[in-house]
Request: fold
Amino acid sequence: MLLQTAEKTGRILYNEEISEGIYRMGIEAPDIAQEAGPGQFVHILIDDGAYLLRRPFSISGVTDGGIELLYKVKGMGTGIMRKMPAGGMLDVMGPLGNGFDVIGGRTAVVGGGIGLAPLVYLTQRLDGDTDVYLGFNDKPFALDCFDGYDVSIATMTGACGYRGDVTKLLSEKLRERTYDRIYACGPKAMIKSLKRITDRLGIPAEASFEESMGCGLGACMVCSIMVADGGSRTYKRVCKDGPVFDLDKVEM
Ligand SMILES: Cc1cc2nc3c(=O)[nH]c(=O)nc-3n(C[C@H](O)[C@H](O)[C@H](O)COP(=O)(O)OP(=O)(O)OC[C@H]3O[C@@H](n4cnc5c(N)ncnc54)[C@H](O)[C@@H]3O)c2cc1C
Ligand code: FES
Reply:
């Protein structure tokens, strides 16, 4: 039943490897493109012969009549996705979730690995006074998506840019500058470390959470995280109430 809700189907326009194990996919999906805001995601049904679960992917860009995804090949589903040819049809549901609050002022986006995907679209929607901080394990990718911005890079191996965590790099930069808001997406450890910094400095921050999902529609509670709501603590669903949350309210 869940699979029949708000289904939309899109033609694959391109599906190309842009770096080792990282793909950029364009999908013709006019309805989704028209509605999609930065931080929202699509849920894609992949026939892997095993699960009947969809896989969530952030919308990393919107074109005239289409959306773009950036994805990392991780397991079975993305392993199948990477082989899908242009011209093929894909079962795409969306746009789902709440998305980032796009505000004016001086902003920073902080991405860890493939977590940069939703930040590409967000950066295009912000008014331009935005600094970009990207952390990678070793080799950076998708840097062309941030052409025209001040991009600071950190790599764990030291292969490029600052050696170490992107949040440490940000922390150093925050000694000489500040931001009206910081937006982030990446591994939990990165988000947790960012939260320590933004809580300490009182900088408003929003983060997109990439929890494992089941239904993607708010029904199964698989994706719940603990959030402070007024005076109490409550579970919120990443798929329905998120994936973007005010970082100061999330318990990590
Ligand atoms: C809101 C949101 C946005 C995301 N955006 C992107 C993106 O833009 N690019 C990208 O590369 N990845 C993104 N992810 C992660 C992506 O959904 C998983 O990497 C993908 O589902 C893995 O599928 P798999 O079958 O290849 O891996 P497997 O490990 O074989 O997956 C098995 C099952 O676990 C689920 N699963 C595993 N890891 C995750 C995960 N991190 N999040 C959710 N479900 C998971 C899968 O959906 C699948 O049902 C996002 C996740 C969320 C929640
Ligand atoms: S994935 Fe089912 S409630 Fe979020």
User: Anything to note?
Assistant: The helical segments are 30-35, 76-81, 117-125, 166-173, 188-201. The longest helix spans residues 188-201.
